[in-house]
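Supplementary Methods S3. Input chains for the assembly prediction are listed below.
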Amino acid sequence: MYESFMRRAIALSCQGVETGGGPFGAVVVKDDDMIGEGMSQVVPCADPTAHAEIVAIRAACARLGMHDLSGAVIVSSCEPCPMCLGAIWWSRMGLVVYGNDRTDAAAIGFDDAAIYAEVAAHLEARRLPLRRVLADEALSAFRLWQAKPDKVSY
Amino acid sequence: MYESFMRRAIALSCQGVETGGGPFGAVVVKDDDMIGEGMSQVVPCADPTAHAEIVAIRAACARLGMHDLSGAVIVSSCEPCPMCLGAIWWSRMGLVVYGNDRTDAAAIGFDDAAIYAEVAAHLEARRLPLRRVLADEALSAFRLWQAKPDKVSY
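Predicted structure tokens for the full assembly:
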């Protein structure tokens, strides 16, 4: 049932290549309507977060005027990377439909294996080093949050 | 040496709470200059990807006009979630400086444990289901990419 939406995502992935981006496209579908679409724009838009899925999610949220895409589905020409999987998670979508998988992507130079390992690794084992400073002062905003009576959780 | 930048990130995290977002702030630092900053804007901007780190990365890249932040450091009031860690990874920054950690965040209702588990899980074990369709057709953009002589890898 998602084939027609996948064909649109694939068309966007081809358009991505033709417009100087990477070979990735995605659409967000809700109630059988496409409410957002995107293609890889990392290089042409000088934005490392502009993966197809994130562009599509941002477009869908802008159209609906809300950050919550519960009940929507993302249809992506490729299995999402950890960044995009995180974005899909935060958007509360309920299903990921994909075409190419991470093995296909690795075969053309988009290898997510290192980043999957990085996210799963304990902080001490990370390739990207982390350093903690001012932990006590940083809690101040958390205390503000806890004390705020009208906060909107997300 | 990152204390002054962390104090700015903490100030942004407090401003996040005061302006209807979450208690998170971040700055991108390169050659001792702040080149981008951000606070959590998920709710006020209706954008689930608008975590402080992503807002700061996008601002820094917009200022520099490039997607590559090699040599820069992200200073975040809290340990990044997997989505943001992915964005930091793709931006090629070399160090993460953080204040609160994931345990502090979980204690005020921002629990990243489930999303860490999700990214690390095999596809069949994911809570967010995935379905594969049109794998053969989806390869078309990958073939275009491979055949493109002037492609810019990222």
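The longest helix of chain A spans residues 3-18. Strands of chain A lie at 25-30, 33-39, 73-78, 95-100, 130-132.
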